[in-house]
Amino acid sequence: MGDHHVHLHPHGAYDGVGPEPGTYPDGFLDSFVEHGLAKGADEIGFTEHLYRCHESAEVLGQWWENAEYPDLATLTAEHVALERVLSLDRYVAVVTDAKDRGLPVLLGLEVDFFPQTIEAVLGLLDRYPFDFLIGSTHWVREWGFDLPSQLYEFDRRGVRESYEDYFAIETELAASGTVDVLAHTDVVKKLGKRLPEPPTDLHEELAAAAGRSGVAIEVSTAGLYQPANEMYPHPDLLTRFHAHDVPITISSDAHRPHETGRDRDLAIELARSVGYRERVTFFQRKRQSVPL
Ligand SMILES: [Zn+2]
Ligand SMILES: [Zn+2]
């Protein structure tokens, strides 16, 4: 039983806890593995954020440019400048070293999806020996909808239109066949802006697209620690993924060692409740089913 979504560095300005961003002292990665194993995970899939690595600057480009909302573009530009403090080469070397030392780890990456740059991104990633790629929508064009500083946009745009904008891109990602797993498939709810009823039409389109392309999705406990106070995906969406034979991974989206593998029993319970009996793992971009 794995945890297939783990970061080695938290977001935001360095708070003095743990190593400085982009540094990996001896035993640091190992502490994530130890916490994960203690909670019942048997392999840890590291998935650092591509956009936080300076090597991504050229291929991702400045997606907030030519913005419809210059205020959001400014906030996103500031966020990326603050957060782009990691090195992809160094991250890959650290995880590869852990593998070579015999630790039960996988080399993954959390890839931000922008339709206009995904091909260039995949060209960059081809040079690295990834076991799996997870794909994420964190931005609707210039709008970083899961950043508290940009929460006000839900009110300007309206919650339903915000969800439609998010699910349109997430569904395009699902259909693209470019990644192995879709991360936090309804993360638009993260900051607590909800519709009165689950958007079943948007859920169905996403689940059907994932079913057609063959991509997996994750059952993630990270939303339990956000204003949404709910796992990703919502049970209605997970039920639809199951109906379309979309496989799952279990994930924590940890950014600190003690968060690795947390609440995985709840994720497994949710998955089983809608009918899942297997989850998948990866090795060198090849997928394998194992019992849940
Ligand atoms: Zn994410
Ligand atoms: Zn993540």
How would you sum up this structure, described in words?
With 292 residues, the protein is of the alpha/beta class. The chain has a single domain, classed as TIM Barrel, CATH 3.20.20. Helix 9 links the parallel strand 6 and strand 7. It contains 10 helices and 9 strands. The strands form 2 sheets. A 7-stranded parallel beta sheet has the order 1-2-3-4-5-6-7. Strands 8-9 form a two-stranded antiparallel sheet. Helices cover 36% and strands 16% of the residues. The site of one zinc ion has 5 residues, from loops.
Quickly describe the structure.
This protein has helices spanning 28-38, 57-60, 70-83, 88-100, 118-125, 153-157, 159-176, 200-213, 235-243, 264-273; strands at 2-6, 43-49, 105-112, 132-136, 181-182, 216-220, 248-251, 278-283, 286-291. It has 292 residues and is an alpha/beta fold.
| Mean pLDDT rating | 96
Task: Write down the secondary-structure element order.
Answer: EHEHHHEHEHHEHEHEHEE
What's the alpha carbon Rg, rounded to whole Å? 18 Å
Strand elements, count:
9
Fraction of residues in H or I helices: 25-40%
Total tally of structural domains:
1
CATH level-two architecture: Alpha-Beta Barrel
Distance between the termini: 7 Å
Bound molecules: zinc ion
CATH class: Alpha Beta
Strand percentage lies at 15-25%
The number of helical elements comes to 10
User: Quick one: CATH superfamily?
Assistant: Metal-dependent hydrolases
Detail the poorly predicted runs.
none
Strand order of the largest sheet: 1-2-3-4-5-6-7
- The CATH topology is TIM Barrel
